Amino acid sequence: MGFPVFAVTSGEPAGIGPDICLDLAFAGLPCRTVVLGDKELLGERARQLGKKIKLLDFDPERPSAYSAAAGELEVLHIPLRAPCEAGQLNPANAAYVLELLDTAYRGIADGIFEAMITAPLHKGVINDGLPEDGFFSGHTEYLAEKSGTEQVVMMLAGGGLRVALVTTHLPLKDVAAAVNRPLVESVVRILYADLRDKFGIAKPVILMAGLNPHAGEGGHLGHEEIDVLMPALAGLREEGIDVRGPYPADTLFQPFMLKDADAVLAMYHDQGLPVLKYASFGKGVNVTLGLPFVRTSVDHGTALDLAATGRADSGSLKVAVETALAMTANRSHTGA
């Protein structure tokens, strides 16, 4: 039986993406992790870090039963657009970073890769390098557009928790207006479907956080729970989805509350993610739900100050690969 073949994009070349990707040569995982990036950059970074790694050119015709030996790493070479120095961002390489994603996506569409795992990129420098009419908002939105997916959901997992978000990168002042019943219902449906199809949970239980302190205190601290969340919950339960709440966010993340839950749904980014990252930082994984393929990512940024120093921790990347392995196996079992 062959090994699944995964595309691993190495991300921002000046950051720790190349460093942590090199560690996959020694991970011993039951899959083929093909790193997409500049082969010379990866070789130079390995020398800087004192890591003896043999970089192999990726051959899609190689038998599926092939497995790289310890200290070997398959690389799909994509050349840098400009010279790169560790820790120094260069907008001229913005197109290179996007080409990594485009190539990985094409490989998935063509059946070469079974999943995509992404190392961190730097949104600011990508936007600095785009034409004036261009805008890059992140991995999630970019891959949704590439695949023609109308809606995706951001979920982080780690430390025994799964936390999905109704809204993601919005200013706090805009969150309440964005949280409406159709959005909440569609997010829950995507979360529920992927917990079943990609995580193999037959009957997922989802706990929903309220938007306001004390979940609105019966309307005294806000009406979103009464006007939006409770009607959404009632409608979703009629569809057979086990979603409970809304619960006050400050008491939701307790063991006795979470013991029977498969995921928590937070209303906004900093409502749910600080708890999860406290429990799992460096060992967590970012999962994009709703895509027609498996995509996982690290739970951290480019860490420019750590690039080429040997102090970058590749734990989150390894967990992202392990999560992709489990998700692809569950998809094959469910026929998704």
From TrEMBL:
GO molecular function: 4-hydroxythreonine-4-phosphate dehydrogenase activity; cobalt ion binding; magnesium ion binding; NAD binding; zinc ion binding
EC number: 1.1.1.262
Gene Ontology process terms (BP): pyridoxal phosphate biosynthetic process; pyridoxine biosynthetic process
Subcellular location as annotated: Cytoplasm
Reported cofactor(s): Zn(2+); Mg(2+); Co(2+)
Binding site for substrate: H139, T140, K277, N286, R295
Residues bound to a divalent metal cation: H169, H214, H269
Broad class of enzyme this protein falls into: oxidoreductase
Manner of cofactor binding, per the entry note: Binds 1 divalent metal cation per subunit. Can use ions such as Zn(2+), Mg(2+) or Co(2+).
InterPro entries reported for this sequence: PdxA (IPR037510), PdxA_fam (IPR005255)
Pfam (any one): PdxA
Superkingdom, natural source: Bacteria
Gene Ontology cellular component list: cytoplasm
Keywords: Cobalt, Cytoplasm, Magnesium, Metal-binding, NAD, NADP, Oxidoreductase, Pyridoxine biosynthesis, Zinc
Pathway: Cofactor biosynthesis; pyridoxine 5'-phosphate biosynthesis; pyridoxine 5'-phosphate from D-erythrose 4-phosphate: step 4/5
Principal location listed in the UniProt entry: cytoplasm
Catalytic activity: 4-(phosphooxy)-L-threonine + NAD(+) = 3-amino-2-oxopropyl phosphate + CO2 + NADH
Family recorded in the similarity comment: Belongs to the PdxA family.
NCBIfam families, sorted: pdxA
Self-association and partners: Homodimer.
Remarks, miscellaneous: The active site is located at the dimer interface.
Physiological role: Catalyzes the NAD(P)-dependent oxidation of 4-(phosphooxy)-L-threonine (HTP) into 2-amino-3-oxo-4-(phosphooxy)butyric acid which spontaneously decarboxylates to form 3-amino-2-oxopropyl phosphate (AHAP).
Name of the protein described by the UniProt record: 4-hydroxythreonine-4-phosphate dehydrogenase
Species this chain originates from: Neisseria animalis
Lineage: Bacteria, Pseudomonadati, Pseudomonadota, Betaproteobacteria, Neisseriales
Gene: pdxA
